[in-house]
Write the C-alpha cells for this entry.
Amino acid sequence: MNDQLHENPYKPETVRVKRVINETPNIKSFELIFENPDRMKTFFYMPGQVAQLSIYGFGESTFGFASSPTRKDHMLFSVMNIGENTAAIHELREGDRLGFRGPLGNWFPVKEMKGKHIYIIGGGIGMAPLRSLLVYLLDNKKDYGSIQLLYGCKTPGDICYLDDRKEWECCDDLDVVLTIDNEYPGWDKRVGFVPAVLKEIAPNPKNSFAVTCGPPIMIKYVLEELEKLGFKPEQIITTLEKRMKCGIGKCGRCGIGNKYVCVDGPVFSLAQLKELPNDL
Amino acid sequence: MGYKILRKDNIDSLLRELRSKYLVYLPSAQSGSTCLTSNEPSLLKATSGNTRLSAKEMTFPQIELLLAYEYKKNLEDPFKPTSIEVKTDLEYEKKLIFGARPCDVKAIMLFDNVYSGGEFKDPYFNKRKENAVFITIGCAIPLATCFCTSVGCGPFDETCSDVIMTPLDEDNSFLAKSLSPVGEEILSMNQFSTADEKQIARSEEMAKKAEAGIERIDLSGIKEKLLANFEDPIWEDLSSACLNCGICTYLCPTCHCFNITDDRFGLAGERIRSWDACMFPPFTLEASGHNPRSTRDKRFKNRFNHKFSYYPQNFNEFLCTGCGRCIAACPVGIDIREVLKRNMER
Amino acid sequence: MQNNEIINKAKEILKNKIGDLDLIVGYQKGVNPLSNSPLFIKNTEDIQRFDYGFFSSQSLPQYLSYYKGKIGLVIKGCDSRAINQLIVEERVMRDDLFVLAMPCAGTINAKKVDKNLSGASIKTAKVEDSTLIVSLYDDNIDIKIPLGEVVFDKCLSCSYYEPAIMDASVGEFNKPPVATKEGYFDVSEFSSKSNDELLDFWRTEFSRCIRCYACRNACPMCYCQFNCLANTRDPKWLSERTTFEENAMFHMIRATHLMGRCTGCQECERVCPMNIPISLLFRKNNEIVENLFGYVAGKNADEQPPLLTFKKTEENIP
C-alpha cells in the first residue's frame, strides 16, 4: 500500500498544492494531490489519521486529514498560522510542492460507530479532523444513525468550511448547530461556549458516540459535560495534539505513559485516556 | 560456538588485520574523558570501568543525515513552480567495536524493540546495526556505580555481541567466546589459539565472582510502583538538585529520543536527526505554548518512568543496562539507584 | 581549625537558622568520591548529613534561580561573587538570603584528576597533607597527587578567599597554600600560543562537545531556560550539528552573553563530561573586561556592570 513509508518512513513523498482556500484570517486549507495521478486513486487512509507535511528547510508539522477517503480527488489539510513551519506553509500557492508522510496514527472507530447516533463536537481548528469523520459518515449514511454537529468558534470570521456548510445545512440526516463565543453584530445563531451549548442541547447517550476535538481547555470541559450527560468513557472519543516529530513511534516526544500519540493515537477514547498517567 | 585464547601481545597484530576489513573503534582517553574512537591510543588493557560516552553512537550517531533536498528552478519556464529533489544515502562503512562493555552492547537489543518494532522500521539504525561487529570485553572488576545485575544485564552478558572476552590476567591474555557467525570467523584468525579447559573454568569462576560483587537492588514491582507514585511529592525532593542538562541522557546507552531539524543553505539543505533529551525544558513544548512537563520534577520523573515503567510495560525489559554512567557523570550526584529505592519504599 | 570542627560549627549555625528559612542549600557526601553533592535542608534532621571540605567543589548559587522564598546558602569565597552578581541583576533580593561563609583551601577539579589518571575509574579519595590520595579499581595501590596539580585554576590564583557577602561565617579566611599564582596566569600562559595553535586547540576541544548544555545549566548567570540562543528557531542561531563550527559558535556566543557577568566559579568546567577546559574562554573575557573597565563581576552588590551603563568617555578606551 504505502511502500515508501515502509521502506524509509522518514523520507517524504512530494505532493502539489491543487488549491488554497482562505478560511479565516489565520487558517488556510490546502487541497493536496500526489505528483503521480494514479497514486491519488489508490491512496488510502481513514478519518482521524494524520500526515506530516514538510516545508524543506523549515521542518515538518503534523496535521489531521480534513478530507474523507470516500472522496478521492484530493487530500485536504487545514493549517493555522502559529509558528515557523505553519507560516512557511501559509506562503504556499497553487502548484507549489511540499513533502508528505502519511497516513500515520490510528483512526476514529467508524466500525464500532455503525448503527449508532454520532455527536460531533468541534472547536476552532479542531474541526479539521472532525470534518474528515463527518464527510465519511455522510457518504456512508446508511450505516449510521442520526448525526449532529456542534461547531463553535470565537467569532463568525473564524468559522471554516463555508462551502461545506451549504451542503451540510441542506442535508436531512445531519443537524448542524453553530455557535460563537460572544455576541457579534449580524450573528443570528447561537451564542455561547461549546461546553455550555452542549449542556443546552443535551445529546442522548443511548446508543451513541460523542467525538470531540478543539483547544485543550474546550476538550476538558466538553469531556466533563459529556460524562455528566451520561455518556460512558468508552462512548467518548477525542483526538490529541502532542508535539510529534517522527510520527512513527521512535523519537519519544509524543509519549504519554507507555503509549505514543503518533502510533497508538491520536484518536483515544476517554476510557483509554483515563488509564494513562496525567501527563497531558 | 567455540572458545579461543587471545594473548595481549597479539592484539596489535589482530587490530592491523581487522583494520583492513573494518573501521575499528577502541576505547581511548582524550583529556581524561573516555569514549570509543577510531584513533589511537587505546585503553584496551584497562580491566575496569566503561567509556564515558557509550557505544550508542555506533548504531545511533548524535547527528544522522536523514535526507538532502534541493529546490530546482525550472530554467525554461520561470513561472512554473520549482520541483524538489530529495535524496537519502544509507551506505555505511563496516565498523568493528573492540572493547565495549556488555552493558553498552545489550542496549542495542533495547533499541531494536523500538526501532525495529511496530509497523515502521528505522532503516538508518538497522543498516548501521547490520554493519557493526562487537567484540565485547566483560567486566572482571565492576565499579561501585555498576548495577547491571539488578536490571537484567550482567558483567558478562552476551546479548548482541559477536565475541565476548574475559581478561585472564595471570596468562596475560583474554579468553574469547564466539556468539555469532561473524564472531566465529574472527576467532578463526591466526592471532587466536586454542583454549584449555582450565582457562574456560577460570573465566566462568571470574564471571560468577564479578556478578556476586555487584550490589543488587530489588526492583520487583517497580513498574506499578512508579505509576502509583505519579502524583507523589517525593519527585520534588528527588529532583531538587537536577540541573536539567543532557548528560545522563546523552551518556546513557539506552536513551533513544531524538529531534528532527532542517538546515537550509539557500535552495538546498539537509534534514538531520539529532540526540534530544526529555530533561530539556522545551522537549514537550507544544505549538499552542502549553508544556505538559513545564517543571523540573515532572521532567525528572518522566525519565525514570519511561525507563522503569512505560518501556517495561511494552517490552518486559527495563530500558536500562545498569552501566552506572549517569551516576558517575551527573554533576550534582543524582543516583538512579537512590531514586528507584526511594520509590520502592513509598 | 580542623575540618571536623568546621563542619560541626556550621551545623550549629544552620540548626539555629533553619526555622527562619524555607530552604538551606549545603553539601553532603555524594556517590562520587571526588565531589560532594548538594544537600537540600528543610529540617534539622537533614542537617545531620552536612559535609564540607576539599570535595565541596560545586558552586551552589545556581539554585537561587530555581527556588523562591527565604533561602540559606553555604558558600566559599568564589561562590559569593555569583550571589552579588545575581543581586545586581535583580534575580534575587538580599533580604531573602542567609549566606553562611566557609573557609576554603581549594577544591578538587575531578577533570584534572581524570586527565592525570588517563580516565581510570577511582574507587576512593581523600586529602591529607596537601596531597590527594586516590585508589583505583585496577591496581591495589594508592596514587598520590600534589594538591596543587588537581585543584581548580581559580584556586591556584585565589584572591577572593574572604567571601564578598556573608551573614555568618565559620573559621578564618586565609589565602590558600595552593594559591601560588597571580591574576589571570592561566589565560596569559594560554594566550602566549600562536593563533594557529589556539585554533588547533579549540578545534580539538570543541569537536568533543556533545551539546549537553550542562555548562550552560550549571552557570549561575545562565537563567534563560526556554529562550536560550541554543533553543530559538527564529532566528535559528545554531544548528543541532555537533561540528566544531557549530559548537564553537554556541560557546562563543554564550561567552559573549556572559561578558562582564562571569564570576569565575568554573562550574562550566567542573560539569563538562567531555573534560573541555571551557572556562578558559570566560576567564579570557573576564581579563578583557578588567583591563578595559577595571571591573570584576560580583565583588560587591551595588556596582553597576560597565556593559549595562553608558559613559560618554571611557578611561581605557581611546
Remarks:
- Residues 55 and 89 of chain A are 7 Å apart (CA to CA).
- The first strand of chain A starts at residue 13 and ends at 24.
- The mean pLDDT of chain A is 93.
